[in-house]
Amino acid sequence: PPRQLSLTAWSLARLQTSAGHEALRAHGGVLSQALQRRSQEFDAHELSMVLWALASGPSRAAQVSGACLTLADRKDLALVLSREALVKLPEAAMGNLANLLWSCASLRLPPDLPRAGLARLDRLGLSEASPQAVANIAWSLAVCAVSGPGAAPAMTAAAHYANS
Fold first, then answer.
1. Closest to 156 (Cα-Cα) out of 134, 129, 124
2. 8-44: b or e for each residue (b if 16 or more CB lie within 10 Å)?
3. Which one-letter DSSP state was computed for residue 128?
4. pLDDT digits over 17-70, tens only?
5. Which residues of the chain form beta strands (DSSP E)?
């Protein structure tokens, strides 16, 4: 099921070892292929988990050894998933939105999702956002050079949290 795929990718990335990213590449990229093939089955939460896993990146040892997905491969997979995230954005909760935007900015994907995220941010409002979510959103908008009516409140809230 999609939930198990997203949890697997997220859990492997959380290990903070090369094992998680090696698993994405192992056996002909079975997990990576499954994530791509079933991308339409994921909800906003699951997409945020998988994109976070791809953006968190492998350890230096795994990168040096070549035992993990390359940055280009991670970006290619993330681009497919970010397109699906655009479709599912209206159902994204604040934490999901923050992770989706952070992941796209971290991987330097095109700013389509962060731009669309501003509209979702407008509907959700920042009042319920955690300081971490606000910081991730503000950083993502800055990195992606996204501006608009929703960007200023996110930047202001991030500055407020930083000064408190």
1. 134
2. bbbebbeeeebbbbbbbbeeebebbeebeeebeebbb
3. T
4. 555 556 656 654 777 888 889 999 999 999 999 899 888 876 555 565 555 677
5. none
